[in-house]
Amino acid sequence: MARIVGIVTTRREEVGGGAPIFYAEDRARLQQVSHLLEKILDCAAHTIDEDLFIIVERE
Questions:
Q1: How many CB atoms neighbour CB 12 within 10 A?
Q2: What are phi and psi for residue 51, nearest 5 degrees?
Q3: What residue spans define the domains of the chain?
Q4: 54 Cβ partners below 8 Å, 6+ apart?
Q5: How far is the C-alpha of 40 from the C-alpha of 38, rounded, in Å?
């Protein structure tokens, strides 16, 4: 089973929900934050589109 533990986006107006949401000012920072969270949380970062990543924990 997988669980979304975070969302990283450049588009504040298009995301919501129960997982923590991290906002990045541009796409370069979006990738930086996503990959950093991936390492810190020992999870996987998945690109949904060029402005949105989800951080997923697998059991």
A1: 9
A2: -120, 15
A3: 2-58
A4: 4, 6, 7, 8, 19, 45, 46, 48
A5: 6
